[in-house]
Design a protein that fits this description.
Layout: H1 9-20, H2 26-39, H3 44-51, H4 55-68, H5 86-98, H6 113-124, H7 131-140, H8 157-176, E1 180-191, E2 217-225, E3 231-236, H9 241-254, E4 259-264, H10 268-271, H11 273-280, E5 286-290, H12 301-313, H13 321-334
Parallel strand pairs: 1-4, 4-5
Antiparallel strand pairs: 1-2, 2-3
């Protein structure tokens, strides 16, 4: 049997260079390592454990290396995959920055990985099978990956601007007046339906949370004092103008001598006749401002709900709805929240 020649010092240096070169692929490095280990009479089991290659593969690599050189272990260039020229890349970047997919006949308002891949294929006959190349183009165009914000159909940017113009000075005046309390209000529904939130866990752990089959609800009214960060939360069975009036009377007892500027949304139980009559009887001690339609981001009470859910109800099985609602209300009333209203917020230091 003809003996396979040993590696020369030049070949050893050549293979070592492949292993140590940061431009070599993982596969190229492993092939070179297998050939070197075999030349140093390492056991085939050790070679398999280190490189993952079987006896047949290792001997095939060595034979091919002796006959073809480094070309035998270098990764083969995939055929049919054209690369973009620098000019083409710049054209794509210009399209990303200055145009929308709609301008090129695609039924999408925004660029996505799949839409851009189709655009490149259609325009330049380049088919990237990996998303990495597409992502690099987005990064080069200084795009970030995130979900679009929600836009409510009832929202009007003109109305939002008008609301700010009409009410900013009123809110600022109330902020500067030590005898006026500024409250932002909202309601939420707490349900026995389990809500889940992403959590970090050790690899391999997959917890499960019990889910209630019978659904029960309780309503929570929440009022955030913008100046102090204090919350006033109340549990109710549901929401209507009669319950809203009762809750307003409870809030009034919290500030018997103060004027109240109350900001809330345009729900029917806020505009109801019973509620409006109660406000009128306050002789100017309670004034209200309705938030613009479809603009929940103006109401800091929305953030209070998220904080409460995160701390009290997310990832928990709610067996007793009243007990859970009481715990939720207790948490809110014990905490302070420095969320801002048009840039104004309590300094909780």
């Amino acid at each position: 049997m003809k003996r396979v020649p040993s590696l020369s010092s030049t070949q050893i240096d050549e293979l070592s260079g492949i292993i140590n070169c940061n431009k070599s692929s993982f596969t190229e490095g492993k092939k070179a390592q297998a050939i070197l280990m075999l030349s140093r009479e390492k056991s085939l089991e050790d070679i398999r454990m280190v490189t993952g290659y079987s006896k047949r593969h290792v001997f095939t690599f060595r034979k091919a290396y002796f006959t073809q050189g480094l070309g035998a272990i270098k990764d083969k260039q995939k055929k049919g995959r054209a690369l973009l020229t620098s000019k083409q890349r710049q054209e794509i970047l210009d399209a990303l920055i200055n145009k929308k997919p709609l301008d090129f006949g695609y039924s999408s308002d925004f660029w996505t990985t799949s839409v851009l891949a189709r655009f490149i294929k259609d325009q330049y006959n380049v088919n990237y099978k990996s998303k990495t190349s597409i992502h690099l183009l987005f990064k080069e165009a200084k795009f970030t990956y995130h979900k679009p914000d929600k836009k409510y159909q009832r929202r009007s940017e003109e109305e939002v601007k008008k609301w700010l113009d009409d009410n900013k000075s009123i809110i600022q005046e109330a902020w500067d007046d030590p005898d006026t309390v500024i409250l932002t209000e909202d309601e939420m529904i707490l349900s026995t339906q389990t809500t889940c939130q992403k959590i970090w866990l050790p690899s391999g752990q997959y917890p499960k949370i019990d889910v209630a089959t019978k659904r029960q609800n309780r309503s929570i009214y929440g009022f955030l004092n913008i100046k102090t960060g204090r919350e006033h939360a109340f549990k109710t069975d549901h929401q209507n103008m009669h319950i809203t009036e009762k809750i307003l009377k409870k809030v009034r007892k919290q500030y018997p001598r103060k004027k109240i500027l109350l900001l809330w949304d345009q729900a029917g139980w806020h505009r109801g006749s019973v509620v409006q009559k109660y406000i009128e009887k306050s002789n100017g001690k309670i004034k209200t401002i309705f938030f613009p339609a479809g603009a929940p981001e103006f109401n800091p009470q929305e953030h209070v709900w998220k904080a409460g859910r995160s701390q009290v109800t997310h990832n928990k099985f709610i067996e007793n709805i009243d007990k859970a609602a009481d715990q939720f209300v207790f948490f809110l009333n014990e905490e302070k929240f420095d969320y801002s209203l048009i840039g104004l917020s309590a300094n909780l230091g």
